[in-house]
Design a protein that fits this description.
Elements lengths: L1 E7 L8 E4 L12 E2 L6 E2 L2 E5 L6 H17 L26 E9 L2 E9 L4 E9 L5 E7 L5 E2 L8 H6 L6 H7 L6 H10 E4 L4 H12 L4 H10 L6 E8 L2 H14 L12 E12 L2 E6 L5 H19 L2 E4 L8 H12 L9 E6 L18 E7 L2 E6 L11 H6 L11 H15 L1
Parallel strand pairs: 5-16, 5-17, 11-15, 15-16
Antiparallel strand pairs: 1-2, 1-6, 3-4, 6-7, 7-8, 8-9, 9-10, 12-13, 13-14, 17-18
Length: about 425
Protein backbone atom coordinates (compact mmCIF):
# COMPACT_ATOMS: atom_id res chain seq x y z
CA UNK A 1 0.00 0.00 0.00
CA UNK A 2 1.53 3.29 -1.15
CA UNK A 3 0.71 6.30 1.02
CA UNK A 4 3.09 9.10 0.00
CA UNK A 5 5.98 9.72 -2.35
CA UNK A 6 8.32 12.71 -2.19
CA UNK A 7 11.00 13.69 -4.70
CA UNK A 8 13.35 16.66 -5.08
CA UNK A 9 16.07 17.50 -7.61
CA UNK A 10 15.32 14.66 -9.97
CA UNK A 11 14.76 15.16 -13.71
CA UNK A 12 12.32 18.08 -14.04
CA UNK A 13 11.51 18.14 -10.31
CA UNK A 14 13.81 20.92 -9.11
CA UNK A 15 11.89 21.64 -5.91
CA UNK A 16 10.37 19.13 -3.55
CA UNK A 17 7.11 17.57 -4.79
CA UNK A 18 4.86 15.25 -2.83
CA UNK A 19 2.05 13.01 -4.02
CA UNK A 20 -0.23 11.42 -1.46
CA UNK A 21 -2.76 8.61 -1.74
CA UNK A 22 -4.30 9.34 1.66
CA UNK A 23 -8.03 9.91 1.17
CA UNK A 24 -9.70 13.15 2.19
CA UNK A 25 -12.41 10.99 3.74
CA UNK A 26 -13.62 7.44 3.53
CA UNK A 27 -15.32 6.87 0.19
CA UNK A 28 -17.82 4.10 0.87
CA UNK A 29 -18.26 3.26 -2.81
CA UNK A 30 -14.53 2.99 -3.60
CA UNK A 31 -12.05 0.21 -2.88
CA UNK A 32 -10.33 2.24 -0.17
CA UNK A 33 -8.13 0.45 2.32
CA UNK A 34 -7.63 1.26 6.00
CA UNK A 35 -4.16 2.48 6.98
CA UNK A 36 -3.04 0.33 9.94
CA UNK A 37 -3.31 1.92 13.38
CA UNK A 38 -4.72 5.17 12.10
CA UNK A 39 -8.01 6.76 11.14
CA UNK A 40 -6.86 7.21 7.57
CA UNK A 41 -7.81 5.48 4.35
CA UNK A 42 -5.66 4.82 1.28
CA UNK A 43 -7.09 5.60 -2.13
CA UNK A 44 -7.21 2.89 -4.82
CA UNK A 45 -6.46 5.31 -7.68
CA UNK A 46 -4.63 8.58 -8.27
CA UNK A 47 -4.13 10.28 -11.64
CA UNK A 48 -1.74 13.02 -12.70
CA UNK A 49 -3.00 15.27 -15.52
CA UNK A 50 -1.04 17.81 -17.51
CA UNK A 51 0.27 18.85 -20.92
CA UNK A 52 3.12 17.31 -22.87
CA UNK A 53 6.59 17.81 -21.33
CA UNK A 54 5.12 18.88 -17.98
CA UNK A 55 7.06 16.18 -16.13
CA UNK A 56 4.23 13.72 -15.49
CA UNK A 57 6.31 10.74 -16.54
CA UNK A 58 9.19 11.82 -14.32
CA UNK A 59 7.14 10.91 -11.28
CA UNK A 60 7.05 7.26 -12.35
CA UNK A 61 10.71 7.49 -13.38
CA UNK A 62 11.58 8.72 -9.89
CA UNK A 63 9.71 5.81 -8.30
CA UNK A 64 11.50 3.44 -10.66
CA UNK A 65 14.86 4.94 -9.64
CA UNK A 66 14.10 4.37 -5.94
CA UNK A 67 12.96 0.82 -6.64
CA UNK A 68 16.09 0.11 -8.70
CA UNK A 69 18.38 1.49 -5.99
CA UNK A 70 16.76 -0.72 -3.34
CA UNK A 71 16.86 -3.85 -5.48
CA UNK A 72 20.21 -3.46 -7.21
CA UNK A 73 22.60 -1.01 -5.56
CA UNK A 74 24.41 -3.58 -3.39
CA UNK A 75 24.64 -6.58 -5.72
CA UNK A 76 24.41 -5.24 -9.25
CA UNK A 77 25.92 -1.76 -9.21
CA UNK A 78 29.68 -1.71 -9.76
CA UNK A 79 31.65 -0.69 -6.64
CA UNK A 80 33.00 2.55 -8.09
CA UNK A 81 30.13 3.31 -10.44
CA UNK A 82 28.37 6.64 -10.28
CA UNK A 83 24.80 6.69 -9.01
CA UNK A 84 22.65 7.17 -12.09
CA UNK A 85 20.44 9.86 -10.64
CA UNK A 86 19.14 12.63 -12.87
CA UNK A 87 19.49 16.03 -11.19
CA UNK A 88 17.64 19.07 -12.50
CA UNK A 89 19.92 20.28 -15.30
CA UNK A 90 18.48 23.72 -16.08
CA UNK A 91 20.09 25.33 -13.06
CA UNK A 92 23.88 25.15 -12.58
CA UNK A 93 23.45 25.03 -8.81
CA UNK A 94 21.06 22.09 -8.63
CA UNK A 95 23.40 19.91 -10.68
CA UNK A 96 25.81 20.04 -7.75
CA UNK A 97 23.15 19.51 -5.11
CA UNK A 98 21.90 16.10 -3.92
CA UNK A 99 18.59 14.46 -4.83
CA UNK A 100 16.08 13.40 -2.20
CA UNK A 101 13.47 10.63 -2.23
CA UNK A 102 11.03 9.40 0.42
CA UNK A 103 8.38 6.68 0.26
CA UNK A 104 5.72 6.03 2.88
CA UNK A 105 4.03 2.65 2.50
CA UNK A 106 2.52 -0.34 4.30
CA UNK A 107 4.16 -3.76 4.15
CA UNK A 108 3.09 -6.78 6.18
CA UNK A 109 0.52 -4.70 8.03
CA UNK A 110 3.13 -2.18 9.26
CA UNK A 111 3.54 1.38 8.09
CA UNK A 112 7.05 2.44 7.05
CA UNK A 113 8.82 5.65 6.07
CA UNK A 114 11.90 5.00 3.93
CA UNK A 115 14.07 7.42 2.04
CA UNK A 116 17.52 8.55 1.03
CA UNK A 117 19.56 11.51 -0.17
CA UNK A 118 22.27 10.98 -2.79
CA UNK A 119 24.56 12.77 -5.13
CA UNK A 120 26.24 11.13 -8.12
CA UNK A 121 28.94 9.47 -6.00
CA UNK A 122 27.33 8.27 -2.76
CA UNK A 123 24.30 7.98 -0.56
CA UNK A 124 24.59 10.89 1.85
CA UNK A 125 21.61 9.92 4.00
CA UNK A 126 19.30 6.93 4.37
CA UNK A 127 16.57 6.27 6.89
CA UNK A 128 13.88 3.79 7.80
CA UNK A 129 11.14 4.30 10.39
CA UNK A 130 8.32 1.96 11.27
CA UNK A 131 4.94 2.67 12.87
CA UNK A 132 4.01 -0.62 14.57
CA UNK A 133 1.88 1.15 17.18
CA UNK A 134 0.95 4.30 15.29
CA UNK A 135 4.00 6.32 16.37
CA UNK A 136 7.34 6.49 14.51
CA UNK A 137 10.04 4.09 15.66
CA UNK A 138 13.57 4.40 14.38
CA UNK A 139 14.82 1.31 12.54
CA UNK A 140 18.04 2.96 11.36
CA UNK A 141 19.50 6.31 10.30
CA UNK A 142 22.55 6.68 8.12
CA UNK A 143 24.66 9.75 7.38
CA UNK A 144 27.80 9.74 5.27
CA UNK A 145 30.92 9.95 7.43
CA UNK A 146 29.16 8.80 10.61
CA UNK A 147 28.30 5.38 12.04
CA UNK A 148 24.79 4.14 11.30
CA UNK A 149 22.43 4.71 14.22
CA UNK A 150 20.29 1.61 14.74
CA UNK A 151 17.01 1.54 16.61
CA UNK A 152 16.71 -0.72 19.66
CA UNK A 153 14.28 -3.09 17.95
CA UNK A 154 16.50 -3.93 14.97
CA UNK A 155 18.25 -7.22 15.66
CA UNK A 156 20.45 -9.56 13.64
CA UNK A 157 23.72 -8.74 11.93
CA UNK A 158 24.17 -4.97 11.76
CA UNK A 159 27.82 -4.16 12.36
CA UNK A 160 28.89 -6.75 9.77
CA UNK A 161 26.52 -5.23 7.21
CA UNK A 162 27.76 -1.73 7.94
CA UNK A 163 31.35 -2.84 7.37
CA UNK A 164 30.60 -4.26 3.94
CA UNK A 165 28.51 -1.24 2.90
CA UNK A 166 29.81 0.78 -0.05
CA UNK A 167 29.21 4.52 -0.47
CA UNK A 168 27.11 3.84 -3.58
CA UNK A 169 24.87 1.14 -2.09
CA UNK A 170 21.87 1.38 0.20
CA UNK A 171 21.93 -0.32 3.59
CA UNK A 172 18.50 -1.78 2.87
CA UNK A 173 19.83 -3.32 -0.34
CA UNK A 174 22.84 -4.81 1.48
CA UNK A 175 20.68 -6.13 4.32
CA UNK A 176 18.29 -7.89 1.94
CA UNK A 177 21.18 -9.38 -0.05
CA UNK A 178 22.39 -10.91 3.22
CA UNK A 179 18.93 -12.17 4.14
CA UNK A 180 18.28 -9.87 7.11
CA UNK A 181 14.95 -11.25 8.31
CA UNK A 182 13.50 -8.04 9.77
CA UNK A 183 14.26 -5.93 6.71
CA UNK A 184 13.20 -8.43 4.06
CA UNK A 185 9.50 -7.39 4.19
CA UNK A 186 10.52 -3.82 3.35
CA UNK A 187 12.75 -4.98 0.50
CA UNK A 188 10.03 -7.34 -0.74
CA UNK A 189 7.52 -4.47 -0.93
CA UNK A 190 9.75 -2.70 -3.42
CA UNK A 191 10.52 -5.92 -5.28
CA UNK A 192 7.02 -7.43 -5.45
CA UNK A 193 4.38 -4.87 -4.48
CA UNK A 194 5.60 -1.79 -6.34
CA UNK A 195 5.12 -2.46 -10.04
CA UNK A 196 5.90 0.00 -12.82
CA UNK A 197 4.68 -0.39 -16.40
CA UNK A 198 6.32 1.65 -19.12
CA UNK A 199 7.42 1.16 -22.69
CA UNK A 200 10.79 -0.51 -22.12
CA UNK A 201 9.48 -3.37 -19.93
CA UNK A 202 6.75 -4.41 -22.39
CA UNK A 203 8.25 -7.83 -23.08
CA UNK A 204 8.44 -8.65 -19.38
CA UNK A 205 4.80 -7.65 -18.97
CA UNK A 206 3.89 -9.76 -21.98
CA UNK A 207 5.58 -12.73 -20.32
CA UNK A 208 3.49 -12.12 -17.23
CA UNK A 209 0.34 -12.17 -19.35
CA UNK A 210 1.55 -15.45 -20.82
CA UNK A 211 2.14 -16.86 -17.33
CA UNK A 212 -1.42 -16.13 -16.27
CA UNK A 213 -2.91 -17.35 -19.53
CA UNK A 214 -1.14 -20.68 -19.05
CA UNK A 215 -2.01 -20.89 -15.34
CA UNK A 216 -5.25 -21.25 -13.46
CA UNK A 217 -5.93 -17.48 -13.70
CA UNK A 218 -6.36 -17.71 -17.47
CA UNK A 219 -10.10 -17.09 -17.21
CA UNK A 220 -9.52 -13.63 -15.70
CA UNK A 221 -6.99 -12.64 -18.37
CA UNK A 222 -9.15 -13.92 -21.23
CA UNK A 223 -12.17 -12.17 -19.75
CA UNK A 224 -10.30 -8.85 -19.73
CA UNK A 225 -9.09 -9.39 -23.30
CA UNK A 226 -12.64 -9.99 -24.47
CA UNK A 227 -14.04 -7.21 -22.28
CA UNK A 228 -11.85 -4.70 -24.12
CA UNK A 229 -13.83 -5.42 -27.31
CA UNK A 230 -10.72 -5.94 -29.40
CA UNK A 231 -12.15 -8.88 -31.30
CA UNK A 232 -9.72 -11.28 -29.62
CA UNK A 233 -11.02 -14.74 -28.71
CA UNK A 234 -7.79 -16.38 -27.57
CA UNK A 235 -4.01 -15.98 -27.44
CA UNK A 236 -1.27 -18.55 -27.96
CA UNK A 237 2.42 -18.22 -27.09
CA UNK A 238 5.36 -20.26 -28.28
CA UNK A 239 9.12 -19.97 -27.86
CA UNK A 240 11.37 -19.34 -30.84
CA UNK A 241 13.91 -22.15 -30.64
CA UNK A 242 17.61 -21.69 -31.22
CA UNK A 243 19.91 -24.24 -32.77
CA UNK A 244 21.42 -26.45 -30.01
CA UNK A 245 24.94 -25.08 -30.55
CA UNK A 246 23.65 -21.48 -30.36
CA UNK A 247 21.81 -22.16 -27.12
CA UNK A 248 24.88 -23.87 -25.64
CA UNK A 249 27.10 -20.87 -26.46
CA UNK A 250 24.60 -18.43 -24.91
CA UNK A 251 24.29 -20.56 -21.76
CA UNK A 252 28.07 -20.63 -21.43
CA UNK A 253 28.23 -16.86 -21.82
CA UNK A 254 25.54 -16.35 -19.16
CA UNK A 255 27.43 -18.59 -16.72
CA UNK A 256 30.62 -16.66 -17.41
CA UNK A 257 28.95 -13.28 -16.78
CA UNK A 258 26.89 -14.32 -13.76
CA UNK A 259 28.40 -16.58 -11.09
CA UNK A 260 24.91 -17.28 -9.71
CA UNK A 261 23.79 -18.77 -13.04
CA UNK A 262 25.69 -22.06 -12.81
CA UNK A 263 22.49 -24.04 -13.25
CA UNK A 264 21.37 -22.36 -16.44
CA UNK A 265 20.53 -24.90 -19.11
CA UNK A 266 20.62 -24.47 -22.91
CA UNK A 267 17.17 -26.10 -22.98
CA UNK A 268 15.68 -23.06 -21.24
CA UNK A 269 17.08 -20.51 -23.69
CA UNK A 270 15.01 -19.21 -26.57
CA UNK A 271 15.30 -16.42 -29.13
CA UNK A 272 12.07 -14.83 -27.92
CA UNK A 273 8.35 -15.44 -28.16
CA UNK A 274 5.90 -15.81 -30.97
CA UNK A 275 2.43 -14.56 -30.11
CA UNK A 276 -0.71 -15.25 -32.11
CA UNK A 277 -4.16 -13.83 -31.42
CA UNK A 278 -7.30 -15.66 -32.52
CA UNK A 279 -10.20 -13.82 -34.15
CA UNK A 280 -13.49 -15.44 -35.11
CA UNK A 281 -15.13 -13.99 -38.21
CA UNK A 282 -18.14 -15.57 -39.89
CA UNK A 283 -17.80 -18.67 -37.74
CA UNK A 284 -14.17 -19.20 -38.82
CA UNK A 285 -11.08 -18.74 -36.66
CA UNK A 286 -8.19 -16.64 -37.96
CA UNK A 287 -4.84 -16.30 -36.19
CA UNK A 288 -2.79 -13.15 -36.56
CA UNK A 289 0.75 -12.55 -35.28
CA UNK A 290 1.11 -9.88 -32.63
CA UNK A 291 3.03 -7.53 -34.93
CA UNK A 292 -0.03 -7.27 -37.23
CA UNK A 293 -2.34 -6.25 -34.40
CA UNK A 294 -3.14 -2.65 -33.58
CA UNK A 295 -0.97 -0.76 -31.08
CA UNK A 296 -3.96 -0.67 -28.72
CA UNK A 297 -4.34 -4.46 -28.82
CA UNK A 298 -0.63 -4.94 -28.17
CA UNK A 299 -0.74 -2.47 -25.29
CA UNK A 300 -3.73 -4.18 -23.67
CA UNK A 301 -2.22 -7.64 -24.09
CA UNK A 302 0.93 -6.43 -22.36
CA UNK A 303 -0.94 -5.03 -19.38
CA UNK A 304 -3.74 -7.52 -18.61
CA UNK A 305 -1.31 -9.90 -16.87
CA UNK A 306 0.00 -7.18 -14.52
CA UNK A 307 -3.58 -5.99 -13.93
CA UNK A 308 -4.68 -9.45 -12.80
CA UNK A 309 -1.63 -10.06 -10.61
CA UNK A 310 -1.90 -6.58 -9.06
CA UNK A 311 -5.58 -7.00 -8.23
CA UNK A 312 -4.99 -10.47 -6.80
CA UNK A 313 -2.00 -9.42 -4.71
CA UNK A 314 -3.27 -6.04 -3.53
CA UNK A 315 -0.16 -4.40 -5.03
CA UNK A 316 0.62 -0.98 -6.52
CA UNK A 317 0.64 -0.58 -10.31
CA UNK A 318 2.22 2.58 -11.74
CA UNK A 319 1.29 3.25 -15.39
CA UNK A 320 3.20 5.76 -17.48
CA UNK A 321 0.95 7.39 -20.11
CA UNK A 322 -2.24 5.45 -19.53
CA UNK A 323 -3.90 6.92 -22.62
CA UNK A 324 -0.94 6.56 -25.00
CA UNK A 325 -2.49 3.76 -27.08
CA UNK A 326 -5.79 3.00 -25.36
CA UNK A 327 -9.18 4.37 -26.32
CA UNK A 328 -10.66 6.78 -23.79
CA UNK A 329 -13.42 4.33 -22.82
CA UNK A 330 -10.93 1.51 -22.30
CA UNK A 331 -8.74 3.73 -20.12
CA UNK A 332 -11.81 4.55 -18.05
CA UNK A 333 -12.68 0.86 -17.66
CA UNK A 334 -9.08 0.21 -16.61
CA UNK A 335 -9.50 2.75 -13.80
CA UNK A 336 -12.87 1.28 -12.89
CA UNK A 337 -11.27 -2.12 -12.20
CA UNK A 338 -9.33 -0.50 -9.35
CA UNK A 339 -12.06 1.83 -8.13
CA UNK A 340 -14.74 -0.85 -7.79
CA UNK A 341 -14.64 -2.92 -4.55
CA UNK A 342 -16.06 -5.90 -6.47
CA UNK A 343 -13.07 -6.20 -8.80
CA UNK A 344 -10.60 -4.82 -6.27
CA UNK A 345 -11.39 -6.54 -2.95
CA UNK A 346 -7.71 -6.62 -1.89
CA UNK A 347 -7.10 -2.87 -2.01
CA UNK A 348 -4.75 -2.77 -5.01
CA UNK A 349 -3.72 0.69 -6.16
CA UNK A 350 -3.29 2.34 -9.56
CA UNK A 351 -1.16 5.45 -10.08
CA UNK A 352 -1.20 6.82 -13.62
CA UNK A 353 -0.47 9.91 -15.68
CA UNK A 354 -2.47 11.01 -18.70
CA UNK A 355 -3.49 13.77 -21.10
CA UNK A 356 -7.07 12.50 -21.24
CA UNK A 357 -9.20 15.23 -19.71
CA UNK A 358 -12.29 13.16 -20.52
CA UNK A 359 -11.49 11.04 -17.46
CA UNK A 360 -12.51 14.06 -15.38
CA UNK A 361 -15.86 14.49 -17.12
CA UNK A 362 -19.30 13.89 -15.60
CA UNK A 363 -19.93 11.03 -18.02
CA UNK A 364 -16.74 9.17 -17.12
CA UNK A 365 -17.30 5.49 -16.30
CA UNK A 366 -14.97 5.67 -13.31
CA UNK A 367 -15.55 8.96 -11.53
CA UNK A 368 -12.40 10.33 -9.93
CA UNK A 369 -12.92 12.13 -6.64
CA UNK A 370 -11.14 15.41 -6.12
CA UNK A 371 -8.56 13.84 -3.76
CA UNK A 372 -7.60 11.44 -6.57
CA UNK A 373 -6.72 14.14 -9.11
CA UNK A 374 -3.32 15.82 -9.43
CA UNK A 375 -1.90 18.27 -11.96
CA UNK A 376 1.60 18.94 -13.24
CA UNK A 377 2.88 22.01 -15.02
CA UNK A 378 6.25 23.57 -15.77
CA UNK A 379 7.48 27.01 -14.81
CA UNK A 380 10.98 27.96 -16.00
CA UNK A 381 11.56 24.31 -16.90
CA UNK A 382 10.75 22.99 -13.41
CA UNK A 383 7.76 20.75 -12.72
CA UNK A 384 5.30 21.58 -10.00
CA UNK A 385 2.86 18.95 -8.75
CA UNK A 386 -0.33 19.98 -6.99
CA UNK A 387 -3.69 18.38 -6.10
CA UNK A 388 -7.18 19.35 -7.18
CA UNK A 389 -7.78 19.60 -3.44
CA UNK A 390 -6.09 23.01 -3.61
CA UNK A 391 -9.25 24.27 -5.33
CA UNK A 392 -12.80 24.48 -4.09
CA UNK A 393 -14.69 21.96 -6.16
CA UNK A 394 -18.41 21.40 -5.76
CA UNK A 395 -19.80 17.90 -6.18
CA UNK A 396 -21.92 19.03 -9.16
CA UNK A 397 -19.00 20.77 -10.88
CA UNK A 398 -17.88 19.60 -14.31
CA UNK A 399 -14.17 19.08 -13.60
CA UNK A 400 -13.36 18.33 -17.23
CA UNK A 401 -14.90 21.57 -18.46
CA UNK A 402 -13.25 23.63 -15.74
CA UNK A 403 -9.88 21.97 -16.32
CA UNK A 404 -9.97 22.55 -20.08
CA UNK A 405 -11.09 26.10 -19.39
CA UNK A 406 -7.89 26.71 -17.45
CA UNK A 407 -9.46 26.84 -14.00
CA UNK A 408 -6.94 24.42 -12.47
CA UNK A 409 -3.85 25.14 -14.59
CA UNK A 410 -1.84 22.24 -15.97
CA UNK A 411 -2.61 23.14 -19.62
CA UNK A 412 -0.27 23.86 -22.54
CA UNK A 413 0.26 27.46 -23.62
CA UNK A 414 0.09 28.21 -27.34
CA UNK A 415 1.80 31.37 -28.54
CA UNK A 416 -0.23 32.68 -31.50
CA UNK A 417 2.65 34.88 -32.65
CA UNK A 418 4.62 31.75 -33.50
CA UNK A 419 1.80 30.60 -35.81
CA UNK A 420 2.13 33.90 -37.65
CA UNK A 421 5.78 33.03 -38.36
CA UNK A 422 4.69 29.64 -39.74
CA UNK A 423 1.97 31.25 -41.85
CA UNK A 424 4.43 33.81 -43.22
CA UNK A 425 6.95 31.12 -44.20
CA UNK A 426 4.26 29.01 -45.88
CA UNK A 427 2.97 32.00 -47.87
CA UNK A 428 6.49 32.91 -48.93
CA UNK A 429 7.18 29.37 -50.12
CA UNK A 430 4.04 29.32 -52.24
CA UNK A 431 4.61 32.73 -53.82
Amino acid sequence: MLLRFTVANFASFRDEAELTLIAEKRHEDLAVRAVPRSRQWALPVAGVFGPNAAGKSNLSHALAFVRGAVLNSHQRWRPRAEIARRPFLLDPETVKQPSRFAVEFVAGGIRYDFGFVCDSKEFLEEWLYSYPEGRPRKVYERRAGSPIVFGPTLHGQKVQLERMLRPNSLFLSAAAANNHEQLLPVFDWFADDLRIAWEHNFEGRLRETRHYLEARESKAVLALLKYADLGVENVSFSDVKLLPEQAARIAELIRHLDSDADGVSPDGISAGMEVELSHVVGGREFKLPLELESSGTRTWLGIVGPIVSTLMGGCVLVIDELDARLHHHLSAQFIRLFQDPRTNPNGAQLLFNTHDAGLLGPEAVATLRRDQVWFSEKVDGATSLYPLMDYKVRSVENMEKRYLGGRYGGLPFFDEELLEIVASEVRAAGA
